[in-house]
Structures are given as structure tokens and as C-alpha cells.
Specification:
Layout lengths: L14 H11 L4 H7 L16 H11 L3 H5 L4 H8 L16 E2 L6 E2 L5 H5 L15 E2 L4 E2 L15 H5 L29 H14 L4 E3 L2 E3 L1 H12 L5 H4 L11 H15 L2 H11 L4 H5 L9 H11 L19 H7 L19 H14 L12 H13 L2 H11 L5 H5 L2 H10 L4 H33 L9 H8 L6
Antiparallel strand pairs: 1-2, 3-4, 5-6
Helix pairs in contact: 8-9, 8-11, 12-21, 14-21, 16-17, 20-21
Length: about 475
Amino acid sequence: MTLPVHPVPAPGGLLSDYLIRLALANSLRPAQLARYLNQPRLWQRDPDCHVPEDLLRQMDRQTGLPVGTLETTSMRALIRNLHLAMPGDTTLIRFITVTGRHTRVPGQYGHPVCPRCLAEGKPMRREWRLTTTVLCQEHGLALVDRCNHCGHAINHSRKHVRAGRTAQPLDYTPDLCGICQQGLQAPTLQDGYALWLQQAMSRAANGDNVCWGDLTLSSHEFAGITECLLRLNRPAAALRHPRWRPETAPIQLRLGMVSSTGHLMSGGLTGCLSRLQQQDLTPVTLLARLPQECVPHWFAQAVQDVLSRRPHARRSWQGPASFTFTEEQWEAITPLLPPEPTTGGGRAGRRTHRQVLENFLSRCAAGTTDEHWKGAVSVPTMRRRTRTLAQTGVLDRIIQVLLDHPTGNTCEVLSSPETVRQLRQAGCSEAEYLAQLTICQTDRRLVIGQSACMIIEAGKEKHGTNRTVRPSCNEKKQLVDAPARS
């Protein structure tokens, strides 16, 4: 026996919304439909995330719709694309907002909705459950998860589940509050950064690749990077709660977090790394407390290249953790320097310009902190001299000469994160160019690696899937000799 009426699910619609519409179309209450499908406890959990296999097979027999079509209305496909597999612990899933009550966190959480979409008769959408979805692109409204009249959390199934023993099914009005029966209202809001991140995460959740600058990322890679950067923009209320999660946060708190993260990610990898460097962050601050499988390895390595003070953690490092001028370099620098100081020095004696600059660059190359520096020149002396040279413009000209005469590990030392940090503190204008040089080199290295992988995949398609074809010498040379972006 099958249900007499079985409407087709709307594209992008939500399973719980479809179940309510299916029950009312057959003059059944949602609780009656659950018992009819041999799922009496269906509404006691989140039916969109916790979908029993028996429910899909039973609905297949009752409605004639294939299991694959019914599964597209649940959150399982989105979760699988973002996580590569269904997580073992389904009580709190990353990127999926919690609705109703939750066993781990006290309180009750509403379902994000667009009131105007629901008033027009459109179904509840799956993308509204993502933590990065905070706006309605069609109407330019902010999503709401609480009634603006009574303050209760929005739950489109509460009224029907509580009225499970009434004689007649109730009308389905998701655009009204289930408690006070007042119309839901949402404020008008336009935020380009939040809308960009919302659209990119929606594409990733649907299994499509996401273009981020010059890179093409898979769903799992983009989700890992977004999770990493969202943690940097947590609201002030989250600082007082160590176990705070965006999945249990209201729309008002998530809106600012999504907008800040979208601004941080704008401009591709180059713009993102540049903003992270300007905030003077460390890799530990960015990557701490995140599972290793969540963040892509190449992104973590790029963060190490740009932000790490340890030279051996950076892939671009090729020399020892020290620096010494060559005679050619020092001959070009000597005319630029002011006369040597004739006073001061104490017991250690006066330090020459060459000793100060070599110790300064060696300390930056090694990433040594002030407390652990044991060089011949003290840290206050190096800071005082470099600040004086930077104020007179001499330090900028010295860096230009070193870039014109690169030998050994000169470029690696000048573009190291600690050198850029110290030059910024000294007021050197060339620090920004060195920072962009490091970021562009990292971004170019990733683009070259991705292009090489595309050549390998093209070779597999040409010669068969069982044969691995690596880029030829000419193809590698074309990739490496390609001009870097400014």
C-alpha cells in the first residue's frame, strides 16, 4: 500500500519540510506519518541530519521516489562533501547549525529561515542550515532564527508534533511563529564579503570545486580553510566560553564572524596571507586545536612559510640560520652608511655597522627571541641602530642593494617573517615589499604544483588510467620560468 498523494521534493528543499508537506497532502498529521513509516521516534531527533536508512527505504516504497532523490533533501550529502564521510559523532557536526534542543549545550536553538521566501510558498532550503549562510541572496534579507515578537526559537515542526493527537491536521504556515502566530520579520542587509563566503561554501557543500584566486579547491579543502579562519573571527562572547561553537550560535553572532572571514579570504591566497601577516599572527595561533585532517597540508605549509619564525619550518629556507655579507655586497653598501659611532659601547667596545647588520639579519634568520639571543651585539643596540638607519632612509637603500646583489641565502633571510616583522617595527618602508615577495613566492609555488598535477591527470587520460605520466622537462621549465605576479 502506497500513499495516494506523493508530491515531488523541491530542488534544494529540506527533508523535514518535505515530510510535513507529504503528511498534510495525505490528510495525515506528521506524527501519524512517522508511525505509518515505522519511525515513531522520527521527530524526537533532527530528521534532516539523522536520517535512518529504513526511513528512506520505507518512503521509497510508499511514494515511489528513488532513495537517491529522497537523500538529496537531507543534510547527509552536504555533510559528506564537507567531511569526506559521515562523522562518527553526529550530535554536533561542523558547519551544520543545531536546531531544537541539544544534549551538550543548554538552551533551545532556532532554524534559520528567510520569512519572505516562506511567505511566497517556497520550501525550507538545506543551505540555511550551514553556519556560513546568514543572508538570503534573492531578497537581500538577513536570516532569522528567533521570533521578533515573542523571542522564541523558530521551529517549523514544533506546532505539528505537539498537536499530534488532535483530530485534524493543522495548516502548515512556516512563515508564522509557532508560539505567538505572528509573522516573522527580517532586516534588510547587504554584505558583499558575507555573501561571497556563503556562496562559496554552498558550492563546496554541493560537491563543486571552489575557485579561490588562482587556486581550484575541492569541497574538503575549502571547508578546512574556512574552519581555520573562522576561529580567528570569533565574537567577544566566545572568548568567555572555551567550548563555544558557531553551530550553536545565533544569527546575530555568526553574521559578523562570516563577514570578517569573507573579508580575510578576499583576494585569494595572496590577499589572505597578507592580512594574516599584518595581524602579526603565528602558525600556532592559526592552526592550534584543529584536527590535522581538517586543514589541507599545503595551506598549513603556506602558513608556516609566511608566519613561522623558525627557519627550518619554511620550505623556502635553503641555508644556515646565520648571515654574513660578501665582499661585493659590503663594497656596495659602505658608501651608503653614515660614519661609524665614536662613543659608547661600554666594556664590549663599539660595534661597527657591519657587526650590527650581520647580527641583526642572523637573529632574524634564526628566529631567535630577545631572551634567547646570545650574539655579539645586544638586542637594544641592534634595535637602536636599525631604527636610526630606517628613519634616515639608509636601511631602505641597503635592502635594495642586497636584492640587486643576491648571493647565498640573502633573499631567504630578507623575506623571512621575522625580518619583515623587525623591519616594520623599525619603520622601514621596504618591509611591505619583502612581505609581498614572500607571499607571492608561496602562492606561485602552490599554483605551479597544482598545474603539475593537472598535467599528470591529463597524461593519465591520454595514456590510460593505469599509467602515471609526470610532467616533461620542457613542461616543468615553462611552469618555473613563468613570470611571477606582482
